[in-house]
Amino acid sequence: MSTVDDILEHIGEFHLFQKQTFFLLALLSGAFTPIYVGIVFLGFTPDHHCWSPGAAKLSQRCGWSQAEELNYTVPGLGPSDEASFLSQCMRYEVDWNQSTLDCVDPLSSLAADRNQLPLGPCEHGWVYNTPGSSIVTEFNLVCAHSWMLDLFQSVVNVGFFIGAMMIGYLADRFGRKFCLLVTILINAISGALMAISPNYAWMLVFRFLQGLVSKAGWLIGYILITEFVGLGYRRMVGICYQIAFTVGLLILAGVAYVIPNWRWLQFAVTLPNFCFLLYFWCIPESPRWLISQNKIVKAMKIIKHIAKKNGKSVPVSLQNLTPDEDAGKKLKPSILDLVRTPQIRKHTLILMYNWFTSSVLYQGLIMHMGLAGDNIYLDFFYSALVEFPAAFIIILTIDRVGRRYPWAVSNMVAGAACLASVFIPDDLQWLKITIACLGRMGITMAYEMVCLVNAELYPTYIRNLGVLVCSSMCDIGGIITPFLVYRLTDIWMEFPLVVFAVVGLVAGALVLLLPETKGKALPETIEDAENMQRPRKKERKENLPPSQASRPSAKLKRKGIIAAGADFALSEARDGASLSPPPKPTQTNLTYP
């Protein structure tokens, strides 16, 4: 009886068919970018001040320049944060139509010190200093309504969380291809409807729907490509699939620069999803999933199609397919298994915190850059470029240095960069950008490393559950990050960076408490996982004299170690074959951008 991996060794593990399929799915990965971090452009908040009809008429009558109008009619202009709030959210309660006001310092006739004049909130809206538009300028999400921008981004992360939880069941129940096409269709429709939303409430509904299906579709794309390639290529396609997301960041910056209107920008980034519906004719169902559903004939038909595309043929001796694992022999995982024993409990808590930290710092740094940067487009572009060397460094280090130290250092670099940025003066903008890029590279590496190590620390039968539960903290972090960034910057612009520095440095220190997984076999049982920080029994036996090595462990006899069966999706990690945990036919391992 042969498996799909056996057949791929003969018909091509990464030949023409896999390369074409990877290219198509990489487009899907890049198109996910606007939904994940598009708030930087969709929710851009320009400088603004209260609009007073009478003041505008007086300015026109007196022939003031824009600077003179602001100086005479807007309170609290100055460098301090308090002055910024006054100038953007408050107005003088003055009747600008009274005839006693002259054109040279009109308020001097009402009070010797303009600070003594009464102030009130904006009543007639705001004037925004921008040639384009965003959801902020259209729906006036500023001042007392600024929290609504936070909610806009949090809602999409709630969708990510729910969609990621559902996708494992749906992809296993209905198939990878069907779920992929459904998520693409809903994403395209909800994205287009969001672009024509008549009000904020409807925009929020469509934003949630996009979050519900977009990340799920991204994950299914990852599942498909890792199930189409052979064992030795899964780590490579995992890294490249996530690099495609980085390419999407660069393209998004350019598109947003060309299209400064948020509605047209939303249309532009949604349009590719309608094109992805053509994948119905381009991408077949995963033969691994078909085998897991005992649809052997359909699976073999697709395998023969792959072989033909690759210019190969399927040997007759390998045409007797069998599922990669016997589901009947599997142990049933429980969430309690993640905290039942001391070492696994420690691993679970540290991994959950690191998933949370990676999400908060990654999204938070991007959002903070959108608030503090001089040129939002260039800053976004430059910071995205550093994700390429981050991926390259990971490839160089994980099999040479190991996982733990590069992971810890990347978290600490991100935290230290955030802390250093606080003390850099604004006139050294080039240094601020350099340090910010260094922090972005660090947290990108940390994000990639947690994907890998999460799968390597759990025994086989709870590995998928462990990845799912721990990585859910990524979306929890995404839910609170907008409130963390936008509310703390109201207090002090650099306040979020102080918080990021603390959580990043703590994450790096906690990583050092985890065992090194480089060169170690994946744990098969609970006891294997508990013993990861000391030499494995099998490895110690190899160094013992033959008489001692052949004696079975009494402890193992008493406990009756149960072999949980090979995990289809993650067994390749024994050889370091996957950067992000690939999926398996019956459960889904999740990876995040």
TrEMBL record:
SUPFAM superfamilies: MFS general substrate transporter (SSF103473). The keyword Glycoprotein applies. Signal peptide: none annotated. The keyword Membrane applies. It is a multi-pass membrane protein. One of its GO terms (biological process) is epinephrine transport. It is found in: Apical cell membrane; Basal cell membrane; Basolateral cell membrane. Residues 524-558, 573-593 are annotated as: Disordered. Keywords: Cell membrane, Glycoprotein, Ion transport, Membrane, Transmembrane, Transmembrane helix, Transport. GO terms for cellular component: apical plasma membrane; basolateral plasma membrane; presynapse. NCBIfam families: 2A0119 (TIGR00898). This is Solute carrier family 22 member 2. The gene is Slc22a2.
